[in-house]
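Forwarding the complex inputs:
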Amino acid sequence: MESFVEARGISKAFQAVQALSDVHVTVQQGHIHALVGENGAGKSTLGKVISGVVRPDSGTLIVKGRAVHYARPRDALLDGITTISQEISLLSKQTVLDNVLLGQENSVGGVLLRRAMLAEFERLRALTGFQLDPMARVSSLRVADQKKVEVMRAVARNAQLIIMDEPTAMLSDDETAIFLGMVRQLKTMGHTIIYVSHFLKEVLDLADTVTVMRNGQVVRTSPAAEETPAQLVTAMLGKPMAQMYPTRTPPPDVAPTIFEVDDLRSDVFDGIHLKLRAGEIVGMAGLVGSGRSRLARTVFGAEAITGGTIRVNGKAVRIRSTADAIRAGIYMLPESRKEQGLLLKQSIRHNMTLPHLDTVSLPLGIIRGKRELDRMTLIGKAVNVQPLLPNNRVSRLSGGNQQKALFGKWLFQRPTVFIIDEPTRGIDVGAKQAIYELIADLARQGLAILLISSEIEEILGLAHRVLVMRLGQIVAEVRADDGALNEQAIMRAAFGTEKSERPAEETHR
Amino acid sequence: MAVAKRELGKQRSLSGILLDYGIVIAFALLFTLLAFQTEAFLTVRNQLNILDQAHQIGLMAIAVTVVIIAGGFDLSMGAIFAMSGVVAAFVARDLGQVEALAGAAPYIGWIAGVGVGTLFGLLNGLLVTVLGINTFVATLASGIVIRGLALILTQAEQVRVNDDAFQTLARGGIGDVRNTIFLWLGFALIMTFVLTRTKFGRHVFAAGDNPEAARLSGINVNLVRTITFGISGFAAGLSGVISASKFMKAQNDAGQGLELIAIASVVIGGTSIMGGEGAIWRTVLGVLLLRLIENGFNLANVDTFYQDVFQGLIILLAVALDATRHRRNS
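Prediction (whole assembly, two chains):
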C-alpha cells in the first residue's frame, strides 16, 4: 500500500502558541484517516498545512512521493487536495450547477457553455449518485444537500484527497447519517479522506486509521479497529476522563427551589416547565437544533416570551428584555464566545464590567474609574484570567482566558440562576478543567446552574441532573443519584424512541 | 518563550504607533511646515480664524464620530443643517412680528432650529432601529425628504432675519474668541467625557463592536443607536442655526455635501468606519488637518483647484490605513 500524504516532522507556531510540534503522520492512499483530539490539539492546523492554507515553520510534506511546499490552497488543489469544513462554503444565492463547477466552468473566451456544463454536471451526478437539481438555488436546499454540493464540487475539482474538518458539526442526526454514507461512497470511488472530528463513535465507525493528537503532538496512530472511545478519550486528555471533573457535591436536601419556569410559551416553545434548586447543576442535553440554546435565550429575555410564569426565589418576574433578566438575577453566558460574548475591539476591563456598570457609577451614569478597576481586578483574579492586563484588548487573550473573562463578566454581580451555554468550546484542556472547577464551586456557593453542552462527557461529569430536549420539548430527566446517568440513556432520549431501537452505532454522532 | 513574546509586543507597538497615531504625526508635520513657510500662519488672528472656520464641520464631525462608533452612519446631516437654519430664521422672523415676543424671537429661533434638528435625528434613529433599515440608505433617503421639506417651507426663497440679536450666536464672543469656537470645542470636550467616562459611552462602543453581545449584556442597543442619531441631528442643527445666524438668512439648499466632509474628517482622524472604536480627539485633529490644508493653500496662494485633489488623496490614505489596521487585528 502506498501513502498519499506524509507529514515528516511538521512544526508550526502561531505567535507564542506552538500549534504543531514535530508531527509525523502517514495517510494511506484510499483510506479514511481520522484525526482526533481536544480543541487546540492541532488537528485542524495539520489539515490546513496539508491543504496549503497554513505554511509550516519546519518539516517536510510529502505528497504522492514528492516533497511539496504549498504557498496557497490553489497549489494543493493542483495536487488534488481540497477541503470540506464545518461551515458551508458555497455561494448561497447561486445555483447548484454554478457552485459545483465554480472555477471549472466550461467556457469559450469567457462565455459560459451552458450545455457543456450541464453535461459535466450529469457526469458528476452519475458518478456520485447524488440526486440534486442543478438549477436549484443553494440557499433553498437543506444543509445535508448543501454538503452534497460541496462534495460534488470536490469531485468536480478532481480531488483525490479530501480533508474534512468537523463536517458533521452543523448537521442533524439524519443529515449526519446521509453525510457519512457519502463519505463511504467517496472511499469506494478511490478517494483518500482525512477526517477531523470529535465525535468519537462516528470516527471509529468510519475510519480505517485513527491518529490521536494532544497539544500539537501526535500521541499515536493506530488502526481504528483497535481503538475504543474510552481509549481515545484517555489518549486525547492524557489522563482518564474521571480526573477531569471536580467531585460532585449534591445540593443539601433542604435546598430550596430558587428558579422556576412554569408553562413557558413562545414562537418555538409550547409549555416548558423547569425547576432548579439552589446549589444544583442541571445539565441540558440534546441534539443541535433541539432548542436548548433557544430556551436559554428565551428565559434570558433575548427572545420573546408569549406566556407562562418565571419565578426567581419564589417571586414572579416579568422578562421582556435581557436587562429585565439581569435585574431579576438570571444571567447567561452565551453559546458563541466571539459572536455573542466578547467585544473583541474593547479592553478586558470594558468587557468584564459591561453588564454591571451601574454598580460602579455615580448618578447620570458617570463611571467611577478607580472603583471599576478595583472590582474588576478582584474578579479577574478570582476567575484567574491570565495575563490580567485590564486595558489590553480582550482579543489578545487565549481562548481559555477569554472564556474565563466572560465568566468574570457574569460574576461581577452574583446571579441567582446562571445559564451556561457551551462553556468550554474551543479552549484547551487546562482551561477546561479550571472552568469545571469554577462551575462546581459556584454551585457549592448556592447558585442554580443550567449547563448546556454538546459534549455529553461534560454534562455527565458535572451535572446533578440532566434534562434532555428534543424538538423544542423537554422529553426526559435523568438523575445522577439514580445511577442512571449515562450516555446511552441521554442519547436514547435525545434521538427519540423510534430511533433508539436501531443499533447505537448507526444513529450516534 | 517569554523573550519571543516581548519581541512580538515590540514589533506590534512600532508599526502600531505609526498606524494608530498617524493623524498626530501628520498634523504636527503640516503645522510645523506651515509655521516655517508663511509668517501669516502662526499669528493669533489666523489661528483663531482657523478654529472659527472649523466649527461648521467640527460640530457635525464630532457628532457623527459617536454615530460611527455605535455602528451607524449619517448622510442626512447636510439636509438637517439646511432645515434647522430655515426653521430658526422663520421663527426668528415671524415671532419678531408678534409684539409680546419680539425681544425673545431670535433666541426662540435658535432653540427651535436646534430642536428640529434633534428631532429629525431621533427620527433617523427610529428608521434605523425600529424599521431595521440600513443606516446608509435610511439617512440618505431621509436627507432627501428633509431637504425637500425645507424647499416646500421656503418655496426656494431666502428667509431673511432683520433683528441683529439673531447674529450674536455666530458673530458674538468673548474678546477675540468667537462663540463658535467655545461651542464646538466645548462640544468636543463634553462628547469626550460622555464616550470615555459614562455608561452611555461604554454602551456606544459595545453597540458598534458587537451588537448581539451588547444586547446579551443587557444593553438596549436600539435605544443607544437612536440617541446617537439624536446627537448628530442636534449637532447638524446647531451648525445650521449658526450659519443662518452668521448670514442673517437661511435657504433650503444650504450645507450640501457637508456630511461627507464631516465623515471624511472622522476617517482622517483614524476612527474606524467599521464601528466599535475611535475617539473624539482624533476627529478634532482630522477636522483641523483639513482646515490647515485649506488655510495653507490660501496663504501660499496655491490655486484652489488643487485643494480638492489633495484632500481626496488624504482621505484615501486614511481609509487605506484603517484597512491595514483591520487586517493586522484580524
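Residues 185 and 255 of chain B are 21 Å apart (CA to CA).
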